[in-house]
Amino acid sequence: MRLTLREREIVDLLKKDPLISQDELARHLGISRSSIAVHISNLMKKGVILGKGYVFNEQASIVVVGLSYLQIDIDKQDEHNIIDLEYRGLPIVASEILAGFGVNLKIISLIGNDEPGTMIINRLLDNKVDTAHIHRHVRKRTCRRLSIDNSSRWEEGFDSQDYRQVLNSREWIIFNCEWLIVDPCFQADVWARASKKEEEDLPHFCAYSFMGENQAIPEILTRYNTLVLGVGKPSGMEYYRKQLNNIVGTSVQNCIITDGRSGLIYRSGNTTGDYPLPPNQSFDSQDGLPGLLTGVVYGLSSGYPLRQAIRIGAGFASSSE
């Protein structure tokens, strides 16, 4: 959780003496008791302090910002068609991966005021996730994405104004965490808000994107700290391998590239490596990206080195197939 300098001072004092009074804290720091009370209240809101006994929450805090939607896949057959329905999106994937690990997780998402929206809420509740920050649009339906034969794709969804409305009322939550995972729908808008804040007050920004063949990496993605890129072919991995020197060293600290079949290429600082995928761990290089990034963030936030975090992420991405 990102703390102000004064909040960090108070936390240090409380850890040394959990029974210290607010009056004593005020005298020690040379500020009023009422100011101490405000800081303590903010620390509780941020989840750093869990109660009046000053019990500290040591779990890393992760906020996920993304769209939840109904995926409709149609597979045309000679004699009959196969139609599959599935609820997808970064919030659902992240909640299913992180729910069992005791992570301090908050989900920010946008759904419609309809039955699919209710189904998504129930799915998140089943994963023991707080749904207080899910925005239900009163006039629009929950996003639907239609794919025919895994090629032609259509979408019924929301517009940029809808996304901004979600962020407007939840900006405090977004920027008061340690790790922030953002899906493509919100990436530009979230960074536009972050660019107006002091860098030291920002969380670790994490993003993913599926890249077209030899597509230039959008500048907005180079503003994120941990970046996962999916490509359609092994040749695409080699193309983006050559771009790593230009990517890492901007805001990007960790960059991972994968085709979901042959393996992953990664770079962190001056270290570049390959992580080959076992045959039983292949995954879709587009639909598997939310699971991959969520697993990587879980690994990094738990103190694992990047290669081990990639191993965790690849396992989650393949298990969600």
TrEMBL record:
Class of enzymatic activity (EC top level): transferase
UniProt keyword Kinase present: yes
Alphabetical list of Pfam families matching this protein: HTH_24
EC numbers: 2.7.1.83
GO molecular function, one term: pseudouridine kinase activity
Entry keyword set: Kinase, Transferase
SUPFAM superfamilies: Ribokinase-like, Winged helix' DNA-binding domain
Listed InterPro entries: ArsR-like_HTH (IPR011991), Ribokinase-like (IPR029056), WH-like_DNA-bd_sf (IPR036388), WH_DNA-bd_sf (IPR036390)
CDD domains linked to this entry: HTH_ARSR
UniProt KW Transferase keyword: yes
Name recorded for this polypeptide: Pseudouridine kinase
